[in-house]
Amino acid sequence: MKLWGGRFAKDTNESVDDFHSSIRFDERLYRQDINGSLAHVTMLGKQGIIPAKDAQIIHEALKEILLDIDSGNVEFEISSEDIHMNIEKLLIEKIGNVGKKLHTGRSRNDQVALDMRMYIKEEIQSIDGLLKNLQVVIITLAKDNLDTIMPGYTHLQKAQPITFAHHVMAYFEMFKRDRDRLADCYKRTNVSPLGSGALATTTYPLDREYTKELLDFDSICLNSLDGVSDRDYIIELLGILSTVMMHLSRFSEEIVLWCTNEFQFIELDDAYSTGSSIMPQKKNPDIAELVRGKTGRVYGALMGFLTVMKSLPLTYNKDMQEDKEMTFDAIDTVKMSLPIFSDMLATITVNKDKMYKGASGGFTNATDAADYLVKKGMAFRDAHEILGRLVLYCVTNEQTLEGLTLDEYHAISPIFEADIYEAISLETCVNKRAIIGGPARSMMEEVIRINSAYLEEL
Ligand code: ARG
């Protein structure tokens, strides 16, 4: 018989059990569920709501059940619907009637709300750790490539020379913001709904502050209707995870590009690439592609769960059970993607000469040539015009700016002097961009110092 079977004249149809049962996926919440129950029953005993010795018996039995589940000795049952009722049933089987007192003053509605918050608090911390590991890989790569000149792009057209350190540290900043967003979401997750009951609290003198302390929450929710029906923190988390994946997929796209035969900027380690079943020459960037692809399922979880929550009346509705599979899948996907991406990135070979060559083509120093004229007193708009003509001349004659003779420069403007070559060398272009945020070695060293201090602290 079901734990709620009293009101029913017959059992649910088997197909209904299959359809509404969540045990197949919420079993992963067993630890949180038991820890929540341990706090609840301790409080029931302390408040004299149930006899202290009963609380003690329940407490011990729950701990044994936890060990049993940990060691894989427990088979959950679909007919017991979800993790909450499976565990309660195990408890009653174990200690008989005393076990029936655990659910005093509690509902599965505040129980599931509590379990999910406990679970997500842990997951936020673990994802934060994975993001930090990725940041360590990035900053290490940057330190090794402070002088590795490469082309910077806009519109995927060569724009201005930068360094590989400058490029990868852009991602460091993105992941810094992601970690900051996680920390912020953690604050709103860290609120205990326990004591909200089914929706309107309870007539028993529960001590909500006490269970909050026992379970290491920051505060308690101040409205029980909100307590059982708020899932905002899950939506926030899915939004953050979507942003993490968006960042990873941008980085992945660049990895895919950089190891094409056309670019050859990097080479992936053999251990982090794959071959083709037919083409013997292939070395494919599957990890980067899959991370890029898996971004879709995390976005899907966000849109899916936003849609589940849309228009739900207060308070609990069974629709909300749909939060789990999507959230678990999004969390699992991110937790799988981050470490493998980090390992792949840590083992790339940077082809410094190819990057340098890439920066030498495509007139990446044209802005600097125009700035050269400005420094000699010309207005920027006029300098831009002259450089446009010089570039056109180079394109027509298959030349580069640094390859032109001084006579060719003079044919277009007499202002150019022999120091033009020094002014438009790639090294000058990079190292004269010496304001904070820029690619110059001096500035990158400063930014790496700031970010190393950040990693020490967070
Ligand atoms: N399995 C349910 C869920 O995940 C637990 C809460 C059930 N509450 C209820 N009143 N049916 O949402």
Lateral arrangement of strands in the main beta sheet: 1-2
Let me know the CATH homologous superfamily of the largest domain: Fumarase/aspartase (Central domain)
CATH topology of the largest domain: Fumarase C, Chain A, domain 2
Which structural category fits the helices and strands?
mainly alpha
> Into which percent range does the helicity of residues fall?
55-70%
| Sheet with the most strands, sense and barrel status | 2 strands, antiparallel
Bound compounds: arginine
Indicate the low-confidence ranges by residue numbers: none
Helix/strand order: HHHHHHEEHEHEHHEHHEHHHHHHH
CATH 2nd-level architecture of the largest domain: Up-down Bundle
Rg over CA atoms: 31 Å
- Total domains, how many? 3
Number of helical regions: 19
Give the strand tally.
6
Mean pLDDT: 96
Would you write up a description of this structure?
The protein is mainly alpha-helical. It folds into 3 domains: 5-104, Orthogonal Bundle (Fumarase C, Chain B, domain 1), CATH 1.10.275.10; 109-130 and 165-357, Fumarase C, Chain A, domain 2; 358-457, Ribonucleotide Reductase Protein R1, domain 1, CATH 1.10.40. It has 19 helices and 6 strands. It has helices spanning 14-20, 23-26, 30-46, 52-70, 83-95, 108-143, 164-189, 208-214, 224-229, 232-258, 286-309, 323-346, 352-360, 366-375, 380-396, 406-412, 420-423, 426-431, 441-457, and strands at 149-154, 157-163, 191-192, 219-220, 266-267, 349-350. The strands form 3 sheets. Strands 1-2 form a two-stranded antiparallel ribbon. Strands 3-4 form a two-stranded parallel sheet. Helix 8 (208-214) links the parallel strand 3 (191-192) and strand 4 (219-220). Helix 3 (30-46) runs antiparallel to helix 4 (52-70), helix 3 packs across helix 6 and helix 14 (366-375) packs across helix 15. The longest helix is centred in the N-terminal third of the chain and has 36 residues, at 108-143. The structure holds arginine (ARG). Residues 22, 26, 82, 108-109, 112, 316, 318, 320-321 line the site of arginine. Arginine is lined by residues 22, 26, 82, 108-109, 112, 316, 318, 320-321.
